[in-house]
Amino acid sequence: MTPQEVQKRDGRACAAVVLYHPDKVLLAHQAEGLRGCSLFAFANGPVHSDAIAALAPTDLRLISSPENVGLGRGLNAVMEAASDQGFTHVMLLDQDSEPPAGILETLTERSLALERQGEMIAVLAPRLVPPQEGFYKQIRYEWRGEARKEGLAAVDFAPTSGSLVSVAAYQAIGPFRDDFFIAGIDVEWGFRAWDRGWGSYIATDLAVPHRWGESVCEDELGKPQILRHTPIRNYYYARNVIAAARLRHVPLAWRVKSCAGLAAQIGLLALKGPPRSLRPVRVGIIDGFRGRLGPAPEGVT
Q1: Of 114-128, 163-177, 221-235, where does mean pLDDT reach its minimum?
Q2: Would strands 89-93 and 13-19 be described as parallel, antiparallel, or unpaired?
Q3: Which of 10-14, 18-22, 123-127 is predicted least confidently?
Q4: C-alpha–C-alpha distance, residues 3 and 131, integer Å
Q5: Is the CB of residue 55 less than 8 Å from the CB of residue 25?
Q6: Gap between the Cα atoms of 223 and 76, Å rounded
Q7: Of the candidates 19, 20, 17, 18, which has an alpha carbon nearest to the alpha carbon of residue 232?
Q8: Between helices 185-195 and 231-245, what is the axis angle to 10°?
Q9: CA–CA separation, 79 vs 64, rounded Å?
Q10: pTM of the entire predicted model
Q11: CB-CB contact of 18 with 71 (8 Å)
């Protein structure tokens, strides 16, 4: 199904990506999978002209920010721009994801069919799988019950990349938490969506290669994410786990699970991390309890 055919069926879909120091080769792969599709790109700070040029196969609508204002604000900017231009669905992508040709149209057609049956679909997403190179970790989904016969499985939240977001749902649920800046934005929004009657689903027969976290060598394939991430990412991870756990709409079971996971990750970092690697995490936890969100404080790393 072409974008024009989707539009004729009462849906108008586009893709969107937030750019921050992107790899132009990966962007070119992404653009090839979106050839001819409308793509909103939010430049989160200066982006080299070669990277922008790599998106030429798409119908590019560029939004620029002179500085890094965070992933959450970038996601809200592309969602609002798409809504203003009459799009009904937006497939959000990370800058290193490689959507196969036709995935936008397939997700949109399925989402529209479910909506016509009365389903309140906030997000319909493909399975994210590691690329063949780089030894990235496999994403773990938080499933809600058994998969349905049509290959549809409910999840607590869908990772941002590859997620087809309903503009109507976005307007009803509210914007992404831009004060989270980065890390956990999709988790909080997914739980808020369920709390307001909107569901997140995975189309288990569709797959998109996605680079989760940082790559390692083959011998380090089992290396935990907290040991792969930069200190600043660990700050945001720790802070936003605590911040999300304080929200009413986040279920108690997830609060316990995420905080226990954070404690285990801290233990690993204490045992195997480089010197002073716990400091950003400690500051993040304190800021999470204090409700100090937004960009990380200077000197945290």
Answers
A1: 221-235
A2: parallel
A3: 10-14
A4: 26
A5: no
A6: 33
A7: 20
A8: 20
A9: 14
A10: 0.91
A11: yes
3 state DSSP class of 165: strand
Beta bridge partners of 41: 17, 62
Task: Give the DSSP H or E segment for 257.
Answer: helix 252-272
Residue owning tokens 């040029």 = 53
C-alpha to C-alpha distances, 250 to 104, 142, 178, 195, 254, nearest whole angstrom:
30, 14, 17, 8, 7
How far apart are alpha carbons 290 and 120 in whole angstroms?
A: 35
The shares of helix, strand and coil residues in the chain, as percent rounded to the nearest 5, are 40, 20, 40
285: its two tokens = 């936890």
Given a cut of 60, whether residue 4 has pLDDT beyond it is: no
Look-up of token digits 């996601």: 75
In which residue are the tokens 């797959």 written? 207
182-207 pLDDT, tens digit per residue, is 999 999 999 999 999 999 999 999 99
